[in-house]
Specification:
Organism: Acidimangrovimonas pyrenivorans
Helix content: 40-55%
Shape: globular
Strand content: 15-25%
Distance between the termini: 15 Å
CATH class: Alpha Beta
Pfam families: DUF2007
Protein name: DUF2007 domain-containing protein
Radius of gyration: 12 Å
Largest sheet: 3 strands, antiparallel
Number of helices: 3
Length: about 70
């Protein structure tokens, strides 16, 4: 698994997930429950993980849609 995206904005996570699933790339959101527990004040980021084999394709999808990626 590789981290593709890290953000405190839940709308970006939802948008990225929809884009990737539309391309047949499985996504795994991480830290969702911690983000909810902190009260939605935006302190703890959520992460979006993809399989290592899908990482390069997923980066292309994100870049084509102007979504900033984790380094």
């Amino acid at each position: 698994m590789k981290e593709l995206l890290r953000t405190t904005d839940p709308t970006i996570i939802a948008y990225a997930t929809a884009l990737l699933q539309g391309e047949g790339i499985d996504v795994f959101p991480i830290d969702v429950n911690m983000s909810v527990l902190e009260g939605s004040i935006g302190v703890l980021p959520r992460r979006l993980m993809v399989r290592a084999a899908d990482y390069h394709r997923a980066r292309i999808v994100m870049t084509d849609n102007d979504i900033p990626l984790s380094q």
